[in-house]
Design a protein that fits this description.
Layout (H helix, E strand, L loop, with lengths): L2 H8 L14 H6 L6 H27 L4 H10 L4 H21 L3 H9 L6 H11 L4 H24 L3 H10 L1 H16 L1 H4 L10 H11 L9
Helix pairs in contact: 3-4, 3-7, 3-8, 3-9, 3-10, 4-7, 5-6, 5-7, 7-8, 8-9, 8-10
Length: 224
């Protein structure tokens, strides 16, 4: 395994488009649900154990070499809101472009050919991780970190939050992030015998509702 590849894939500067998305925190700020470092930490913790866990499971599954088309269908089933499905596929297209440049491989080319509208981002992330020589646990860690790193960074801009406070809350969540990644990787390890139903499908109804509402805003700072 290349630890350097893990750093590249998890780097916020990896050109996969995540910087343009707030992970739901823009809507949470607008509704005053997130207004300071403490409420942001609660938001990120909730997101980590719901959307983050689900994404981590899909990424870990893809990193095992499981059929990405089946996983993309599983991702659709776990993303009931049309606006968030569109976001996931848009991010998947952008990540696919970056991953094919960084780690070209037939599996990534096949996704581009079969799903020109874009595959769900966690699925692409997992295939990219496998192409980079990373493990399913590594892929799960990347997906879990993205689920909270994006909102934390966005909140710095939205609330003029001290970046040190945002970084500190991510550090406090590190242990929980590892727990989520381990759970996701363990589920992915049972795919061959139990099928995609074994993957996490943690729901976050409020994120779904606000995600659909946010998409209808005429003015917003972030795409989602």
């Amino acid at each position: 395994m290349s630890h350097a590849a893990l750093l590249v894939l998890a780097d916020g500067r990896f050109p996969a488009g995540g910087h343009a998305h707030s992970g739901g925190v823009e809507a949470a700020v607008a509704s005053h649900g997130v207004h300071d470092a403490s409420s942001l930490e609660a938001f990120c913790r909730g997101r980590l154990h719901t959307a983050g866990l689900t994404a981590a499971g899909l990424a870990a599954a893809a990193a095992t070499g499981y059929d990405p088309m089946a996983l993309d269908e599983a991702a659709d089933a776990r993303t009931p809101v049309p606006a968030l499905r569109q976001v996931a596929r848009k991010l998947g297209r952008q990540m696919l472009r970056a991953a094919r440049a960084a780690w070209p491989c037939p599996e990534l080319d096949e996704i581009a050919h079969r799903l020109p509208q874009g595959a769900h981002q966690p699925v692409v992330l997992g295939v990219a991780a496998r192409a980079a020589g990373l493990t399913p646990f590594d892929a799960a860690q990347c997906a879990a970190y993205e689920s909270i790193g994006g909102p934390a960074t966005a909140a710095v801009r939205l609330l003029s939050l001290d970046p040190f406070d945002a970084t500190a809350l991510l550090a406090r969540l590190a242990g929980e992030l590892d727990d989520v990644a381990h759970a996701a990787a363990e589920a992915a390890a049972r795919l061959a015998t139990d099928g995609v139903g074994v993957l996490p499908a943690a729901s976050s109804p409020l994120l779904d509702i606000t995600g659909e509402q946010h998409a209808a805003w005429s003015m917003r700072l972030f795409a989602s």
